[in-house]
């Protein structure tokens, strides 16, 4: 290996590398880069890679199972909802011509979705019976306790008052096992419930982007202490969603379809002087993903957890550079206060060391850790409540990045999967991986 002292003159004369070649690193470690079995919560992780396949890995990054279909995202089904059968997933099964409005960020290219068993057999499929003859699912699908499936989908149609001739509207369908739509909801019918000012609503209608809200998450509220205490807004059957393009989170009443709880879009800008103070009122999240209520039985149950990308979003766009990276926020929905957060500063790193301007996710684990997917970099990691990184994995699965022909290892969402979700006898490994210390890296670089 050339030392920096030896290589520098060659670099300057162009004898070894051209300036373009040396502009940025091109090789990165993949797989598990650190792992402390005593501090991490030991589990599997499931994700759909940039290679358009769905992967289940163990704590050492070994591929335990692969389904030859992508998920947008992959969704695991609780065995209790399928007669105790383990290892069932919801994925996208077939594609269609997306038309001129199709993109990697919407569902216009999706023909059908379905449930696959552990061996990859399709046991349920939906698409031909969907409105318009295609599922057009995007960002989420969830199996319900009654056997139905809720699907977040797109519907292209004309909506009065919009500048564009047709909008890419966000629709929610509740679909029976027979493929019939039992209940549906359409975002454009509730524009006056999302918290826009009159001036902002004019900007929404005048937008050149037909995907005007880009709802990127749909989850069940689920059992929670707020409903148990009498707050009907948090009925377990209600649905929680968030809009990336408009910077709001909302709970939809399942009976009326009305917004009964909302956070955003207009929040105070982040004050650097108080950005690490807890608790504090929620400040401006931007382009957020994976907002959901932490399930009962987990630390922080009842609070909302979300990945705050701090990308580009809003009507008008929120000023960029509020902070130098992304955040994960835990919010008490009864007080709208941030009660826990993670940013690179919590791991004693500069803010830009943790950043994903789009996609990404965060999930609370039974021991209080949080599994985070820094999506645009294909990096998943577990942090403790204090911000210590105790497990880290970089996806080795490559494919086209959204919006072009560039190659990337991007991952939309990574989900924790308990050991009892898979069939008995499924292998797993839990061998510690020690990351090199700063001193060791400096010694290696000087050789």
From TrEMBL:
<dbReference type="InterPro" id="IPR053143">
    <property type="entry name" value="Arylsulfate_ST"/>
</dbReference>
<dbReference type="Pfam" id="PF05935">
    <property type="entry name" value="Arylsulfotrans"/>
</dbReference>
<dbReference type="GO" id="GO:0004062">
    <property type="term" value="F:aryl sulfotransferase activity"/>
</dbReference>
<feature type="signal peptide">
    <location>
        <begin position="1"/>
        <end position="23"/>
    </location>
</feature>
<protein>
    <submittedName>
        <fullName>Arylsulfotransferase (ASST)</fullName>
    </submittedName>
</protein>
<dbReference type="InterPro" id="IPR011047">
    <property type="entry name" value="Quinoprotein_ADH-like_sf"/>
</dbReference>
<keyword id="KW-0732">Signal</keyword>
<dbReference type="InterPro" id="IPR010262">
    <property type="entry name" value="Arylsulfotransferase_bact"/>
</dbReference>
<keyword id="KW-0808">Transferase</keyword>
């Amino acid at each position: 290996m050339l030392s920096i002292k030896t290589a520098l003159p060659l670099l300057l004369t162009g004898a070894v590398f051209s300036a373009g070649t040396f502009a940025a690193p091109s090789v990165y470690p993949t797989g598990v880069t650190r792992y402390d079995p005593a501090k991490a919560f030991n589990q599997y992780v499931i994700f759909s890679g940039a290679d358009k396949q769905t992967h289940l890995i163990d704590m050492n990054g070994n591929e335990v199972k692969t389904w030859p279909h992508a998920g947008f995202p992959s969704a695991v089904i609780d065995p209790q909802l399928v007669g105790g059968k383990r290892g069932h997933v919801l994925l996208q099964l077939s594609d269609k011509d997306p038309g001129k409005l199709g993109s990697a960020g919407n569902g216009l290219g999706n023909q059908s979705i379905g449930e696959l068993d552990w061996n990859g057999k399709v046991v349920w499929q939906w698409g031909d019976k969907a409105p318009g003859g295609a599922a057009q699912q995007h960002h989420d699908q969830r199996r319900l306790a009654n056997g139905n499936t809720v699907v977040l989908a797109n519907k292209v149609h004309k909506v009065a008052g919009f500048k564009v001739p047709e909008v890419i509207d966000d629709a929610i369908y509740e679909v029976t096992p027979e493929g019939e739509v039992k209940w549906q909801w359409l975002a454009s019918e509730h524009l006056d419930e999302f918290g826009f000012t009159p001036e902002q609503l004019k900007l929404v209608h005048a937008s050149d982007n037909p995907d005007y809200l880009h709802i990127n998450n749909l989850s069940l509220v689920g059992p929670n202490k707020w409903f148990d205490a009498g707050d009907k807004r948090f009925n377990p059957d209600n649905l929680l969603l968030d809009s990336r393009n408009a910077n709001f989170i909302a709970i939809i009443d399942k009976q009326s379809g009305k917004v009964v709880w909302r956070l955003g879009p207009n929040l105070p800008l982040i004050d650097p002087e108080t950005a690490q103070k807890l608790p504090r009122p929620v400040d401006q999240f931007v382009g957020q993903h994976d907002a959901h209520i932490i399930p009962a039985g987990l630390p922080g149950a009842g609070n909302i957890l979300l990945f705050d990308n701090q990308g580009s979003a809003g009507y008008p766009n929120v000023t960029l550079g509020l902070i130098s990276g992304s955040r994960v926020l835990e919010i008490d929905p009864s007080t709208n206060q941030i009660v826990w957060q993670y940013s690179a500063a919590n791991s004693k790193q500069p803010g830009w060391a943790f950043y994903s301007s789009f996609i990404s996710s965060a999930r609370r684990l039974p021991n209080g850790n949080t599994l985070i997917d820094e999506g645009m970099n294909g990096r998943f990691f577990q942090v403790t409540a204090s911000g210590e990184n105790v497990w880290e994995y970089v996806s080795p699965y490559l494919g086209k990045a959204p919006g072009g022909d560039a190659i990337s290892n991007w991952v939309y969402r990574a989900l924790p999967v308990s050991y009892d979700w898979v069939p008995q006898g499924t292998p797993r490994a839990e061998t510690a991986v020690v990351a090199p210390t700063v001193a060791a890296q400096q010694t290696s670089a000087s050789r």
